[in-house]
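Form 7-S
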Amino acid sequence: MKAFKMILLLALLTGAIWFAIVVAWQVNDVQPSGSDLALYLGGLPLLAIGAVLLVRYGLRQRRERAAERAAAPASAARGTAEPGEHDAPAVAYVLHLHAAAVHLAVGTSPEEAAANLLEPKRPGLHPSLKNAQGMPVMAAPVDDVDTDAVAEALRAIVQEQHQGQDFDRLFGEEQLRAVALLEPVVEQLLMLESEVVAGLTPPGGEPAPSLSGRRSDAVAPAKSRLRTLLLVAESWPQPARQILGDWLLGKAESLGLPADRIAVEVVPIDGASQGWSLIDQIGRRYHGEVTPDRYLLLACASQLGETSIETLEASQRLLGSGRPEGLVPGEGAAGLWLSGPPEPGRDASPEALELHVLQRGHVAAGTSSRNATRQSSELMSKALACAARSPDTVAAVVSDADHRPSRAIEIASAIAVVCPELDPIAQSLNLGVACGHLGAVAPWAVLAVAAAQARSADAPVLAVGLSDGEARAAIAVTPIPPPSTTPADRSDDQAA
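Output:
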């Protein structure tokens, strides 16, 4: 549309110039020669068009520079509103990721998802969802989602503990699909936690081995708790979130996890950037205090319902005719089981992976792809620096980039800048291309797939978030180094 307007403007300018010249010739009774025709009817309009385009380019550059200057105070303001986000001092923390699980359109395990993202199957038209014009919409559903079992379980909780609540109003098709996708993820990770807790005091009173068969940070100390954070969309009603929390506690109890060993909080968020910020908050907590508690980070979402389609379309964020930067509704669930580093004198679990300091930033609204690429590449470089790893050691980059041309160009360009030796196709896994917009699920899903790649390649992997508006995030996922190796040692080895 902008190009059409510009062409129309230039055509009108050319016509106006021709009209003025012809009128001037007629008034002064001038008989133009061939050179006059070429100069005045050809050269003069071209000169005017060039001047217009040059002025337009200068104004656009001036606006971009002004937007970039305004981005710094805007980011500072966001940091004031959200303590510890942007204005917090740098803290060198490390988190240990012990296990991850996903239930996505590309697979039901991080390993399967990573393998399928090498040649992703792009979303197609949904068989039943329609836009306001009655046309089918693009969507990325998970196949064979059965909501009957979770609906029955949730309804029973409402009847027993939340009488007076309207179940059908609280849990529509989207909410039920999200919980059904979450159930296998929860069961898998809670089972690991319950096995560790159950093995704390075996016969003989000796500390139990971890899942790896050795004493490690995966062994749960006697007074530790599992702090569980479940991310859902902000549109979930508060009673529905409370019922979902009760359902999650019931799951833990059914798997043998004592109620005093788990704390559950259902957190509504309005974008993936808030999920990324939780990683930073947890890392800072472990850095600031010694605690044996572990974290179970969960998320579930589904936009495959009339409500989400109407909301996306009303805000002009749904992919459609004339909106190539619109979103493709998706759904899924993901979870991470992590802790802080082991206490001094204790070895880390060999199956664990390290999550290093999260790097976060924002791009100015309406900024050019060049500036967005520069922001993302800077965050990726900083993430590698925090992990004391060089770019040539990176095995892959996993992001939530989707079909949108702006995001595809940005992540490909950033990889070319930071890790030029990587294959931009085979070693760049973009979750959103196959799964669509995942909302709250995106951060945990990206980290889960990145962890699978890091474990498979035994090498660092970068996890990048860039699908949530102007927010950007990057974090390095690396294998645990040998016990005698320190970050300084790794830097010396790479320098040698």
